[in-house]
Design brief:
This is UMF1 family MFS transporter. It is a multi-pass membrane protein. InterPro entries: Atg22-like, ATG22/LtaA_families, MFS_dom, MFS_trans_sf. One of its GO terms (molecular function) is transmembrane transporter activity. The chain is mainly alpha-helical. It folds into 2 domains: 193 residues, Up-down Bundle (Growth Hormone, Chain: A), CATH 1.20.1250.20; 190 residues, MFS general substrate transporter like domains (Growth Hormone, Chain: A, Up-down Bundle). It contains 17 helices and 2 strands. The protein has a two-stranded antiparallel ribbon with strand order 1-2. Strand 1 and strand 2 form a beta hairpin. Helix 1 runs antiparallel to helix 4 and helix 9 runs antiparallel to helix 16. It is globular. The relative contact order is 0.14.
């Protein structure tokens, strides 16, 4: 079977698909990575202690349970993560049965963007509103990405998916980095603009929601509706009841695709390592290496923009050597990075920035190719269903690495040993990928094997 020619209409639809990466990455970067943690913590501390300055030793009371204000945001994100792991498989089952995936994706995106805009109204001591909106925004983000990832199969043929996925990730990093520069300018330059720091943060939170919702319109209008592959009806039940039933059917049927399951397990390990490095890098830089906040901000921007080149270069490498081999090289790169991080001298900014550039290079490439590689190994017409498992694996188990990081630090009192312990996650992922028979996995799913896998 030959690939469908890359027509002007197909190129235009792929460009529209990229725009949703551009749209949602601004929320992930500005809100999720940089702003919401410190801001929501300060609001909670103001409620608990009457001030957001200094160390707060008074706990919040949540349903009768005492919670430290400094831990609130981590509990909220953990709750949203676990909730999404339960909800996403149902979202995927629904998405495979609707006539318009783009509409479903956009509705989740606009609901999440509205919640993100609502964060502007979180002020004073109203941390409860912030916690609720953060859960809604993160849950809607995960649901929209489940549908968005499934649309990749509609807009790109098997031999073209590595390129398209890589360009989408690169465009997303560019969008997220662009708004982050603007927002950091507002926050850091607020006094010169006559804006208090708190108001500057609230404006930045609002801008991320408007960016997410606004650019989703561009993606929605450019994508086309692709009719779902006909699936067997189940006793004439409603769409929702059939979707819940299909969740359990998918989990059972996954055993028929052992190679696809093997990849999901490999992805569970190495993605957990990636996410833990991302979450812990600022703490490592500040607490272990002694860098000021300004250095960490520059480092975040460096990682964001280097990841653009990483995604594109890994996409080109996959076209020549195959996605599986390229991902494996990326995992070797991650192992080198955490080893170098272990011996990195404190207070030396140039080696730290070089390490950050290395993180950006392999982060962009491994994440982009994992998405496109997985898309080859799932049954046609069930893409959203199986991508919901992909998202659930990513989100529902992403606390393993942070748990190991925290435990190693607790027992050794050293962030260096904690960071090097993450080699285990990359090594396990790499070992499992060496045992993966990608052509077999693709054929078992009933798909055409690309020229390079």
């Amino acid at each position: 079977m030959t690939a469908e020619p890359l027509t002007d209409a197909r190129r235009a639809e792929q460009r529209s698909w990229y725009w949703y990466d551009w749209a949602n990455s601004a929320y992930i970067t500005s809100v999720g990575t940089v702003l919401i943690g410190p801001y929501l913590t300060s609001v909670a501390e103001r409620d608990a202690c009457g001030t957001a300055e200094g160390t707060c030793t008074t706990d919040l009371s949540v349903l009768g349970v005492a919670i430290s204000p400094g831990s609130l945001v981590f509990y909220v994100i953990t709750f949203a993560t676990l909730l999404s792991a339960l909800v996403l498989p149902v979202v995927g089952a629904v998405a495979d049965r609707v006539d318009s995936k783009r509409t479903l994706m956009a509705r989740f995106a606009w609901a999440g963007a509205a919640a993100a805009c609502g964060l502007f109204f979180v002020a004073g001591t109203n941390w409860q509103l912030g916690a609720l909106l953060l859960v809604v925004a993160n849950l809607c983000m995960a649901a929209s990405l489940t549908v968005y990832d499934a649309i990749l199969v509609d807009v790109a043929e098997p031999d073209d998916r590595d390129r398209v996925s890589s360009r989408g990730w690169a465009f997303g990093y560019l969008g997220g980095g662009t708004l982050l520069v603007v927002n950091l300018g507002i926050v850091l330059g607020g006094p010169a603009l006559g804006i208090g720091t708190e108001m500057a943060v609230r404006i930045s939170l609002l801008s991320a929601g408007l960016w997410w919702g606004g650019f989703t319109i561009r993606a929605f209008r450019g994508l086309r509706d692709h009719p779902p592959t006909v699936l067997p009806e189940q006793d004439g039940r409603t769409l929702m009841s059939r979707s819940f039933g299909q969740l359990w059917a998918t989990l059972r049927e996954l055993r028929r695709y052992p190679q696809t399951m093997l990849f999901l397990i490999a992805y569970l390990f190495y993605n957990d390592g990636i996410q833990t490095v991302i979450y812990s890098s600022s703490v490592y830089g500040q607490e272990e290496l002694g860098f000021a906040e300004e250095v960490l901000i520059v480092t975040i921007l460096l990682v964001q923009f280097v990841a653009i080149g990483g995604a594109l270069s890994f996409g080109r490498a996959a076209a020549r050597y195959g996605a599986r081999r390229t991902i494996m090289v990326g995992l070797l790169g991650w192992m080198v990075i955490v080893t170098v991080g272990f011996v990195l001298p404190a207070g030396r900014i140039v080696p730290f920035l070089l390490l950050a550039a290395g993180i950006g290079l392999v982060m962009g490439g491994t994440q982009a190719l994992s998405r496109s590689f997985y898309s080859q190994m799932i049954p046609r017409g069930r893409e959203a269903e199986y991508f919901s498992l992909y998202q659930a694996v990513e989100r529902g188990t992403s606390w393993f690495g942070t748990l190991v990081f925290g435990l190693v630090h607790q027992f050794t009192d050293s962030y260096r040993y904690a960071i090097v312990a993450l080699i285990v996650f990359f090594a396990l992922g790499l070992l499992l990928l060496t045992r993966l028979d990608a052509p077999r996995a693709i054929r078992e799913a009933g798909n055409v094997v690309p020229r390079r896998v």
